[in-house]
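Why this split exists: single-chain examples teach little about how molecules sit against one another. For that reason, every record in the complexes split bundles all components of an assembly together and asks for one structure covering all of them. Below is a record exactly as it appears in the raw files.
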Amino acid sequence: MAQDILVVGEVAGGAVTMTTTELLGLATQLADGGKTNAVLLGSGATGQAGAAFAAGADRVLASDDAAYDQYRSDHWLAAVEAALDQASPAVVLIAQSMVGRDLGPRLAFRRGTAAAMDCVRVEQSAEGLRATRSAYGGNAQATYSFKTSPAVITVRAKSQDPIAERAGATGETVALPAAGAARTEITGREAAVSTGLQIQDAPIVVSGGRGLGAPEGFRVVEELAAAFGTDKAAVGSSRAACDLGWYPPSQQVGLTGKVVTPDLYIAVAISGASQHMAGCSGAKTIVAINRDREANIFKAARFGIVGDYKAVVPELIKAIKELP
Amino acid sequence: MHLVVCAKQIPDPETPPAAFRIDAAKNEVIPAQGIAPVLSPFDAQAAEAALRIKEQSGDGKVTVISLGKESAQAAIKQVLAMGADEGVLLSADEFQGGDSYTTAHALAAAVKKLGDVDAVFCGRQAADWDMGQVGLGIAEELGWPSAIIAKDVKADGGGFIVQRVLADGFETVKMAGPAVITVSNELGDPRYPKLQQIMQAARKTVTTWTPADLGLQASELGAAGSRLKLEKLFQPPAGGDVQIMEGDTPAEQAKALAQALRDAKLI
């Protein structure tokens, strides 16, 4: 059944984000011959229309107003409402990002419809649109249908595949209005001190948890990551360890932190609470190092060592360095 | 300053995954035996944020509201013991089986009935469904500005200065009241009530409001008014079989792991 879709894209560092291309990939599937619209907001947004067309958009609705660069509900909501009025989509797709967490519910309530948040699977079945998401901290999955239209769906990063790039594809570009007034004022912004390889991009993530016993335990975790190469491995943390102040919140892996999908995820002294698994279960291979053989992390792991990390990890660093 | 805290009672999120069961016919979680429901942890942090502002302002008042069954009294009493002044329970059959929309709709109606509210504090998301919509829904229903995922909140005249957690840093947002603020775990541990406060809270009367008290019809509440329909609740399949590294010493186990990772072409 052909239907029109609206994707709220995001532009970062002068390019559409990877998640935007994933949303567009999903949108072309759901559209099934209908029109795929993309909203792009902020400096250089119109210049990114080509990238959106290549990723599956038929029409781009954009505004280059720099006021959109820093997300604010009132600004973005007005722009997306204007796009909604023009495109009349059946489904609105937004990333489960700092934008989507705010915009998704705001938009749904503003338009008297429903939002399903942080969905990992979205499909058009014979019975209608179905969105599946994790609940109860990852212990359960819930599949929803929508009684109202448009369906607003925020989608987890890396849960969808982009289409093969349609090089040279073109489409219609429509200008959206510049930002109006906003009731909130951003008076400061502070970047987390995380240089080098970002945890979401790293092919290997080594994470530490409360079981490290003390913040110094993270030095060992960092040494293990360094043994793989600083261009390959990044360091993560469980929420418990972040809440204890042992590691910066920017490195938190889990439901309320980052969702990572590396090829290799090594959990050191992490029990594997469901909310943590929600952030790392997309890893291709999970390795667990834990003293407790009954720890939940071993249920998701492919390889494991039962033992004290203080004894195991230094030996593992040595063994990796000695590999031919 | 009159501050409202929205509190939800949920199955304990620390329930071991092995004790987690679903009633597939009812699409419901079966309460784990011997594990009592708790106040959603982010809501305790929302209460903490509101109580800090009450103390800062000197003459503040905190009202805690919960939508739930009669058992949700326990969640309300916990926030009262932390230092909230009054408790309201929205409880009636009509409220049951709803979604984020109907919950926000009812809570917003309760805030309107209170009348003189300067801010509503919610957890960033309830730790059962993890949607993170209700706070923003209340803001939309009331026409208020909002700031979500706060790690610090200060009163600023009639408004608020909120430090928010972003994916890669922090942001400071200033807004006029009345406003809605949702609070994240980065705020820090909520206060632990003293025994005397727990006893005082136990004696406090919690007001119960029904849909009629809020001027709401059954059709806009609960399952009847919801906009999302839960089609299926299920447990994801368990992961693969773990291969535990053999070896008498940590060195042998570590060598076996390094070799296994190399064989799997992961390193």
